Amino acid sequence: MTTQDNNATPCIEFDDVVAGYKDFMILNNLSFTVAKGSITLLIGPNGAGKSTVLKTLFGLLTPRQGKVRLNGEDITGASQKELLARGIAFVPQGRNLFGQLSVYENLELGGITLGMKTTHERIPEVLEFFPRVKERMNSLASSLSGGEQKQLEIGRALLLRPKVLLIDEPSIGLSPMVVQDVFKLLRKLADQGTTVLMVEQNVKSALKCSDNAIALESGRLVLYKSAVEILADPQMERLFLGGAHTTTAAATAV
Questions:
Q1: pTM of the model as a whole
Q2: CATH superfamily for domain 1-87+163-254
Q3: Measured between alpha carbons, how far is 247 from 254 in angstroms, rounded to an integer?
Q4: How far out from the chain centre does Cα 184 lie?
Q5: 47-61, 167-181, 185-199 — which is least confidently predicted?
Q6: Cα torsion through 152, 155, 156, 158, rounded to 10
Q7: Distances (CA, A) of 99 to 70, 89, 145, 161
Q8: Is the pLDDT reported for residue 253 higher than 50?
């Protein structure tokens, strides 16, 4: 199966990837392509391998088999430092801040690979995306609300001006209004050329800002459709709650 737009420029490619932990393989011969400047949502039941895709792409897991490519170049097994230099940023699930440091200090640490001069030049630019966080710049990160903390994490990633943004469950612990703001920001970034690969439990809302969705089941791709098509699918609830069945995949294979 391929992306919906066969003429789109490929950015991320998984080619027959097998990956997991020790002897337990989670991704099983997984292949897909993500177009440059798009938002692609990974969906499927718990344990399907969604977060494992992000971790494999960001070098936290090394594939046992297969290739991972970025803009046509093999990045299989590359270090996180090298991947950051290539423009890949990762916002993992949960809170990943230094609570006893200020908002500004957390941003400084996010730009540690850039050097302080470049980081200080970019911080005001990033804070324009997050007015509430900007107001709390000198506050301890631990004193921020859950929504503000998540915005700070995303802002820290944006310091790198990423070409690819990997984001895992951005809505956890956030109010519906903040969630919509996050999705609008991701859409804006994609429209400006950033490729976004996202895992999100709030599937319906995430689909509304996405271009395509990939359904995984047992670490295999079983469905790849445009977000618009999936939102219009009368069997959407079955897809999200129980995983996409291979019969559906066969009927929609390209």
A1: 0.87
A2: P-loop containing nucleotide triphosphate hydrolases (3.40.50.300)
A3: 14
A4: 14
A5: 167-181
A6: 170
A7: 33, 21, 12, 24
A8: no
